[in-house]
Structures are given as structure tokens and as C-alpha cells.
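Key result, reporting period 2: structure in, sequence out.
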């Protein structure tokens, strides 16, 4: 299989051509123009660790579909092509410009891969106005969706309010009476802090100490010292700083577990090394089971430089598979695609729960996987080229109630 090649500079709309036995998604054996799917992902700024994975997962799915002859059914055997724009992580102008390029200039039938809540908040309004199916990977701010949303779908990270309840349930399961939280001062962090404050009313026996840091912070020593002797550090509200929080807390002699949410494992393992083993707990929408392991091997053969198949890549893979199925059933009409997605359930290999949605696009009753990073080794060869560590599944949450905007 030939490699995928970026054909324009990062920051502009990019195209990934998938080589298929001498023909590409632009022509050759395909008589009709390919169907374009957009990837709006962070390739610069604080979130590339998520964005590169999401983009790669989308490419993997497109490659597999195209190798089988393209989208069947109403898609009439047409190939898929991925067009990519860099949203620069938190730059809302870049996100808006990228979305418009993908949908208006490139003609993408749907857009997925968004990681940052500020980008999602800005772009969701455009997607709803233009009736373009939009898939979020890790943008979890409660305010992104409204009860009138019909074209925007979360695919991995639920709304902050849902995650906050899961955090308190984790603390309760471990018999804790207190915890500390380091919050990033941007859309997701602020939304998550409000969600924790709301959730604490249901768990009055568990106290929480908040420390708010800039989203660009790299030195968390003063915030960790201000937390005091807490038995659990919640880094969920500061995604880019979570690996440093883990590493620096260990350097301070703090042995409390660190709880994140949907953080790529590889940067954490590299930042903290063996200090992460047994201390780093996280929520995930996957990976689970033999189907995940088979998919991970295919992924790493295609993208060996990515070293590990994160759940961002799994979510990107799911987005393309979902859109392709919708096209095969209802054609390339964006409104019909969104309606099909909203009214069907999708079982994706490796996911911790079936993907289905409320009418406004929140995940319906997700069961998140709770994992701890261990020294490994992986259960099979070819699953982790970054090291011998491995995420061990502890349990899956009970089905979580979908957040209703305004509740």
C-alpha cells in the first residue's frame, strides 16, 4: 500500500489522495468525482497530539473503503477523499475559515475531527445554519449543542456535565472524601469547572479544591502545591497540561493518582515515564477487545510514526464509517445523512459503547471505559511501537445519562 501524502501546506485546506493499485481518489478507475469528507483538526497549537490521530483514523477508514471499491448502495461505488484544514487548536478564526473552505470550496459532504471546544462553539453554528453534518471528537463544553441542534454529533467525549458526574462516581468508588482539580482557563476548562460545581451538589460528602491555570501553562508546581494533600488530582479540565501535571506531581513527591479524560496515552507515557504506571487513570471511548487490536495493527502498519492507536484515531475512523454507511443508504444529501445518523445505531470495532444520539446530538447512554496505564507489556506484538506500556481496563461506567442543554 502506498503512503498518503499531504499535497498543500499546513494551515490551508489539504487533500489526502489514497493510492489504490495505480489509481487515486481523483480519477483512474473511478468514473465519477470522489465524495469528499472534511477533517477539521488541530495540526498546530497545543492539541496536535489529538488532531494528528483523528486525521489518521479518518484516512485509514477511507483507505479501507476505497480498496473495496468505494461507497456502495446509493453511493454507487464512488470513492472517498479526505480534505483537511488546520484549526490551530483554539484559533476560532482558523476554525471558521477552515470549515468554510472544506464545505464551500472543497464541497465536503460532512466534517469531523474537532478537538477544541472553542473551535466547536464557533463552527457548530455554521454547520447548523448550512445543514452540514459535523462530528466532534473531543470538544466537550456543555454550551456547544442546543436542543435545536440537528447536524452536530459528539463521537467520543460526552458533554462536560456527563464527565463531571463520572469523575465524582470514580472518587466515590475509591472511597475518597476530597480531591483537587487543575482547570485550564478556556472554553472546555471553564465549562468543566461549572459542571464539577454542579455535580458536587449530588456528592456533598466529597470536597474539591480548584486551581485555575492558563491553557498554555507548562509549570504546574505552584498549582500542585496549592492543592495540598489531596488523594486524587483531577487533570480532566486541563488536557494539554495533564502529562506535565502527572510528571511534576511525581517530582514533588506527590503519589496521588491523576485522573484525566480522553488524553492520548503516548504523550503521557513519554512525559512521565515509569512514574505514570499505576498513577494515570483515564476515561476512554475505547479501545476494547480483539476487534480493537486487529484495527490497531492495521493502523500502525499504515502510520508507524504515530506509535499507538489512540481513541482519537478510533473516533476518526468511526466518523468516516458512519458517514459512508449513511451515504450508502440515503445518498449524498447532507440533510438526509444527518437524519440517518441521528436515527440509527452504529457498532464500531473497539468502541466501549454503541454510537447513538439524542435528537440534539449528545451521545445517548455512553459507557465510558476507565483505564489505568501500566508498564505492560501489550497483550500482542504490533500494538505499541512507543514502548512496553499498556492501558489496562478497570471497568466500564454504567450507562451515563445524556446531557440536555439548559438543564
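The corresponding designed sequence is given below.
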Amino acid at each position: 500500500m502506498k503512503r498518503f501524502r499531504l499535497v498543500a501546506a499546513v494551515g490551508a485546506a489539504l487533500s489526502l489522495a489514497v493510492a489504490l493499485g495505480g489509481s487515486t481518489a481523483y480519477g483512474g478507475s473511478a468514473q465519477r468525482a470522489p465524495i469528499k469528507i472534511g477533517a477539521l483538526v488541530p495540526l498546530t497549537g497545543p492539541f496536535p497530539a489529538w488532531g494528528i490521530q483523528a486525521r489518521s483514523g479518518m484516512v485509514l477508514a477511507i483507505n479501507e473503503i476505497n480498496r473495496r471499491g468505494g461507497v456502495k448502495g446509493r453511493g454507487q461505488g464512488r470513492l472517498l477523499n479526505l480534505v483537511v484544514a488546520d484549526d490551530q487548536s483554539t484559533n476560532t478564526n482558523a476554525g471558521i475559515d477552515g470549515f468554510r473552505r472544506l464545505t464551500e470550496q472543497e464541497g465536503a459532504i460532512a466534517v469531523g475531527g474537532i478537538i477544541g471546544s472553542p473551535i466547536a462553539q464557533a463552527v457548530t453554528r455554521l454547520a447548523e445554519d448550512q445543514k452540514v453534518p459535523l462530528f466532534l471528537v473531543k470538544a466537550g463544553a456543555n454550551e456547544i449543542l442546543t436542543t435545536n441542534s440537528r447536524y452536530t454529533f459528539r463521537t467520543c467525549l460526552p458533554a462536560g456535565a456527563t464527565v463531571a458526574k463520572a469523575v465524582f462516581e470514580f472518587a466515590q468508588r475509591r472511597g475518597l472524601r476530597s480531591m483537587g482539580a487543575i482547570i485550564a482557563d478556556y472554553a472546555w476548562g471553564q465549562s468543566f469547572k461549572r459542571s464539577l460545581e454542579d455535580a458536587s451538589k449530588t456528592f456533598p460528602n466529597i470536597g474539591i479544591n480548584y486551581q485555575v491555570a492558563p491553557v498554555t501553562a507548562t509549570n504546574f508546581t505552584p498549582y500542585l502545591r496549592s492543592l495540598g494533600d489531596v488523594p486524587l488530582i483531577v487533570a480532566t479540565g486541563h488536557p494539554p497540561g495533564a502529562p506535565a501535571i502527572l510528571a511534576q506531581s511525581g517530582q514533588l513527591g506527590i503519589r496521588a493518582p491523576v485522573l484525566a479524560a480522553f488524553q492520548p496515552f503516548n504523550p503521557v507515557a513519554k512525559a512521565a515515564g515509569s512514574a505514570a504506571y499505576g498513577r494515570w487513570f483515564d476515561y476512554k471511548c475505547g479501545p476494547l477487545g480483539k476487534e480493537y487490536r486487529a484495527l490497531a495493527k492495521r493502523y500502525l502498519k499504515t502510520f508507524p510514526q504515530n506509535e499507538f492507536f489512540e481513541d482519537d484515531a478510533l473516533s476518526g475512523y468511526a466518523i468516516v464509517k458512519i458517514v459512508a454507511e449513511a451515504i450508502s443508504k440515503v445518498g449524498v444529501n447532507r440533510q438526509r445523512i444527518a437524519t440517518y445518523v441521528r436515527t440509527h445505531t452504529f457498532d464500531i470495532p473497539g468502541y466501549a459503547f454503541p454510537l447513538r444520539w439524542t435528537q440534539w446530538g449528545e451521545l445517548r447512554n455512553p459507557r465510558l471505559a476507565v483505564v489505568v496505564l501500566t508498564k505492560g507489556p501489550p497483550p500482542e506484538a504490533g500494538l505499541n511501537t512507543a514502548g512496553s506500556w499498556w492501558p489496562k481496563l478497570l471497568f466500564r461506567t454504567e450507562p451515563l445519562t445524556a446531557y440536555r442543554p439548559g438543564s
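Residues 5-157+288-342 form a domain with the Rossmann fold fold (CATH 3.40.50.2300). The chain has eleven helices and 14 strands. This case is discussed further under Risks and Mitigation.
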